[in-house]
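Field notebook, page 336. I keep forgetting to write these up properly, so this time I am using the form the group agreed on. The chain and the ligand, (2S)-2-hydroxybutanedioic acid, are recorded exactly as supplied. Prediction of the bound pose follows.
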Amino acid sequence: MSPFRTRIFTVTVAALLLAASCTAWAQAPIVIQFSHVVAADTAKGKGALRFKELAEARTAGRVKVEVFANSTLYKDREELEALRLGAVQMLAPSLSKLASLGGGDFEAFDLPFLFRDRAAFRAVANGPAGAALLQKLESRGIKGLAYWDNGFKAFTSNRPLRKVSDFQGLRVRVQASRVSTAQMRAVGAEPRVTPLSDVYADLKDGLLDGEEGAPSNIYSQRLHEMQKHLTVSNHGYLAYAVIVNKAFWDGLPSELRSKLEGALRDASSYASSLAEAENTQALERIKASGKLQVYTLNADEQAQWRAAMASVYSDASAWINPQTLRAFKAAAGPGP
Ligand code: LMR
């Protein structure tokens, strides 16, 4: 080959290599890391995986979603800080945990005996009151995209819990919500705010006597193996908001963002549709394990718990906007 031809050849090869690497760069997928703290085999875990599947298919691989279950990327509190800093892009924390993002009004969802059933929760979350709370997160650099259901909480403990006096002195794990801590104090228990990832070990090590949670989490975190009693009390409701880092989300190309919004809508319906059956099945499995006694409060006992916990509403008026409380009560209708 002549020197001239060699040069042309070299330049052409270099140009082709450059073009190939530019194309590869242009096609590098946008990565969404989606972190959560529960088992993959729960309604939330399955909803996150469904979002991954739909988002990747509908964007033809331009977006890659990496799901991290069971606190493998971040624990409860860390994940919220990581989201604000943009170190992770998507989370689905329980509503109780959003108070730390300046969303103190989210704690209204924790008020005891507020929801008589799942429909009452959905009327609040999917109505104007729920939308107004998600909007409030924006000033903290977070965008709230959807609410996901879990279900009613139960108590587990190392002694039977039927009467209000049974709570006296019990060290009970709660999430980081002032409403949940006030609820435990109202019945004479000692609230212990603990990340979900530590509850099993703390029960095992005797640092906790009990905890409150949805049966799907109790079973999948194996908390029933560390406890002797479970009370079906339906005193509170566990649910989530799917939230993203706002700068990241707003910076996505708009056609991708709308495909992701569609994928999330469908994943949200899927996750919420699974929640009730997952909890029913988890409770059955807990009973079948023979590891603990399961007791359901009767109407009289429930009325006594409700009366004892009523003071939480006046406590919470110190930090929850009265307008939010009124909107919640109006949308939820009468309690149980
Ligand atoms: C808990 O900490 O008990 C829950 O928030 C866990 C969850 O995300 O369901």
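OBSERVATIONS:
- The chain has a mean pLDDT of 92.
- The chain is about 50% helix and 15% strand.
FOLLOW-UP: compare against the apo run.
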